[in-house]
Amino acid sequence: MLTLLADLWYVLIPLGHIVGAVGVTIDAVLRKRQVPAVIGWVGLAWLAPVVGSVLYVAFGINRIQRAALALQREPVLGDTGEFRAVQAGGEFLQSLAVAHPSLPALPRLGFQTTGNPLLPGNAITPLRDGDEAYPAMLAAIAEARETITLLSYIFDNDPVGRQFADALIAAHRRGVQVRVLVDDVGARYTRPTIVEPLTAAGIPIATFLPTRLPRLFRYANLRNHRKLLVVDGRIGFTGGMNIREGHWLSRRPASPVRCLHFRLEGPIVYELQRTFAVDWAFATREALDRAPWFPRLARAGHVVARGVPDGPDSDLENILELLLGALSAAQDHVRIISPYFLLDDVVLRALQVTAMRGVTVDIVVPARSNIPVMDWAMTPQFALLLEKGCRVFLSPPPFDHTKAFTVDGSWCLIGSTNWDARSLLLNFEFNIECYDAELTRELETLIDGRIAAARPLSAQELAQRSWLVRWRDGVARLGSPYL
Description:
By secondary structure, the chain is of the alpha/beta class.
């Protein structure tokens, strides 16, 4: 009997390897867009018997496509009648061309990419670190009268997270309708999670794309990386900041993290609420598609803005296309600040060409991030950027989680997206494209301050690294799509 079972395994394992490898080959060729990715997955499936096929099922394109199709089946909210009165698009193109002469084609590109119109009359205020952002967010929650929607990748059950939970519970008890959505992986950075006390208080809360083995999939695909807070449908907050103690620097947290968030008023708040509503409908099947969630919105400032959702569904590559378009339109200078900077060849080459055209390209990244392997993987591409004229600056501790992209002092992109493959291809993100010289100059002043405190990276420094360090960094870069 044992001999028969052994003989059977000798047949089943090779057969399983062949069936799995053939299946991976067919699926990867049909579904993956990039030839190197197809070659990589197919090679892994054939050269690593059984294991390669299992890894493809766990991390490959199949999982992305299935979830993307599920999201596409969810009802996508149209514009409410109240909101159409303040929407605008083409009528602004001529005035924008005059105000921003170096970026005449970007407004059209943004619409072609997202289908969302440019919205005039917004007030957008940068909030530095949790010291400015959290008090403003908590004050808005305390003043809420009708609705609160909150979406965060990470919502820790720590002193800051519990302060937000207490504010949400107090709003719920005074009759405000509250909805909270947290990414399933991000919710589990602390145990017990913040989900338990909010659920116990009766607040509707859901997790996005629950993962069976969250501890093993901290870097799993398809995470909801958006950060959105909307109060009464009129006041919004978005940017790069999660809800966790590390961002509130004046409280001297054990692991301090710098970041940038934004307070918004005006028509653009509709885009934040609509994005939350679509994600909430997917997670809970509850439709938030009318008043009081979507009130009439009036102009509140002078910023012209567009909501730019991005994710591995119908919004795939929205941000990627906008980044490439903005780089091609730049005439004088580009400033980029990102906690992670790990690009594919297309974006890398676009940055090189932009610098070669004579545009000043300044890139600010942390001298040391919170993920050592990310630092290793990022380093090899810096040599390629420096040799074409880009400038790279390494900001000192604390870890800088700030995300911003500015062009020619008149256009900026703000939101949750990092300059890496995970944000550009795998995560669900939300950003705002802004046409406003005052806001852009304020961001450039902030980035200039980071540059003044940073250390410039030189090609000579990179060349002097030992071969062992360079080999380590090169190997780490091979895993860039999943870092």
